[in-house]
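Input record, target 12 of the design panel.
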């Protein structure tokens, strides 16, 4: 919820303020998750006797995607909307999804994606306002 500043560590890109209330931020977080989120769909070794899988990751970006996932869950999207999000998270582009014969038509899919983003932004704003009201900040 809300916004934060990503700080700059070794092997990280420089980021400005990210805010899940911003349409473009949500759009690009969804479209580029497969490239940016190093933890998404990774296989992590949880066996305590093994060394485990170690890799560098941006904690703030992981937290952003965790917040995005929470907001998406609260949106209660229909199965077709969720399936579109999962296909996009996996790195597919909208024009590729339309040619996969999965029931998505080109213009309708762009409109569907636009509505998904707007709903995520709206739900984030509702959550943020509720949090601020509960903490008597506003």
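The sequence produced for target 12 reads:
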């Amino acid at each position: 919820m809300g916004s934060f500043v990503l700080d700059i560590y070794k092997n990280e890109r420089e980021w400005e303020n990210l805010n899940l209330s911003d349409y473009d931020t949500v759009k690009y977080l969804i479209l580029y998750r497969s490239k940016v989120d190093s933890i998404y769909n990774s296989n992590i070794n949880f066996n305590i006797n093994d060394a485990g899988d170690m890799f560098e990751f941006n904690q703030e970006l992981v937290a952003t995607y965790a917040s995005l996932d929470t907001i998406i869950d609260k949106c209660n999207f229909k199965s077709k909307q969720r399936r579109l999000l999962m296909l996009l998270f996996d790195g597919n582009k909208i024009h590729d999804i339309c040619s996969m014969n999965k029931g998505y038509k080109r213009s309708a899919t762009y409109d569907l994606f636009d509505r998904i983003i707007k709903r995520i932004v709206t739900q984030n704003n509702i959550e943020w306002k509720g949090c601020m009201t509960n903490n008597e900040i506003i």
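The mean pLDDT is 81.
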